[in-house]
Amino acid sequence: MPSPSLLARVDHLIYTTPDLDRGIAEIELLLGVRPTLGGRHPTWGTHNAFAALGPTSYLEILAPDSEHLPSSGWRPFGLDVRGRSRLTAWAAKARGLAEFRKEAARHGVELGTVLGGSRQQSGGTLLTWQLTDLRCVVADGIVPFFIDWEQSPHPALAAPQGAILAELLAEHPDADRVSRMLRAVALDLPVAVGPAPALIAQIDCPKGRVELR
Q1: Which residues pair with 200 in a beta bridge?
Q2: What integer pLDDT is reported at residue 102 of this predicted model?
Q3: For a tag site, which of 62, 84, 192, 201 has the least CB within 10 Å?
Q4: Is 16 in contact with 8 (CB distance < 8 Å)?
Q5: Sign of CA dihedral 159, 161, 167, 170
Q6: Can you tell me the distance from the alpha carbon of 22 to that of 97, in angstroms, rounded to the nearest whole number?
Q7: What span, in angstroms and rounded, lies between the C-alpha atoms of 148 and 115?
Q8: How large is the average pLDDT for residues 63-74?
């Protein structure tokens, strides 16, 4: 059975793809819901699209932006290396990220520094957030990065509806170690032994229950 406490902590899932139009088409075919365009991230050299997975969670389709090189000199989630589309990472909700990061470090989980960001939505609403450093990838992305939307409306509210996250699972060759790290940050994500790190989302949608990995 899925853990209600885990699903409540899922902020968003990140589906990386070499081409945004391709990623949108793949998700629309799988879910029967067409993601809507989001925006550009000049710092990372990426752009994205969204589909809601509930009232406070969503799926982000993220791709390299061919029109903008990253001002930071790098793209997150391995997007500088073109590969297949896949579920690459996830973000969990947290408050008080500066203290949260310190507490995680005391338990041996390094989340990097806390960074701030903002983006204006197409309707004019300004979104602001804080998040732990995306350059700090923990347990191959099975341990999430953490985000706080502060006073902003959650982006899921403006994303296309119709899909609901039913379960989130993971696989990793060193499942016991990764599970200990997740418990250290108070997340009960089930991790099974697998040949390679993988996130697996079970999603209820107009196509029925589908699996995204």
Answers
A1: 169
A2: 96
A3: 84
A4: no
A5: negative
A6: 34
A7: 10
A8: 86
| For the chain, domain boundaries | 4-212
Q: Fill in the DSSP letter of residue 153.
A: P
**pLDDT at residue 82 greater than cutoff 80:** no
Nearest residue to 117 via CA among 39, 62, 49, 20: 39
Helical H segments across 57-197, by residue range? 97-106, 175-184
Per the listing, tokens 């990838």 go with 137
Q: What is 4-212's CATH number, 1.10.10.60, 3.30.70.260, 3.40.50.300, 3.10.180.10? A: 3.10.180.10
User: Residue range 172-191: average pLDDT?
Assistant: 97
Could you tell me where the DSSP H helices lie in 10-108?
A: 20-31, 97-106
- Beta-bridged to residue 155, according to DSSP, are none
Alpha-helical regions (H) of 35-91: none
Give the pair of three-digit tokens for residue 157.
């509210």
How far apart, in whole angstroms, are the C-alpha atoms of residue 132 and residue 28?
30
Residue 164, class by beta-carbon neighbours within 10 Å (0-12 exposed, 13-18 middle, 19+ buried)? middle
Q: In the beta sheet, which residues pair with residue 16? A: 62, 86
What's the order of all strands across the beta sheet hosting 164-172?
A: 191-193, 164-172, 198-205, 208-212
Structure tokens at 33: 């819901």
How confident is the model over 22-48, as pLDDT tens digits? 999 999 999 999 999 988 888 889 999
Please tell me the distance from the alpha carbon of residue 143 to that of residue 172, in angstroms, as a whole number: 11
Is residue 4 within a helix (H) or strand (E), and if so which, with residue range? Answer: helix 4-9
Q: Decide if 87 contacts 61 (C-beta within 8 A).
A: no
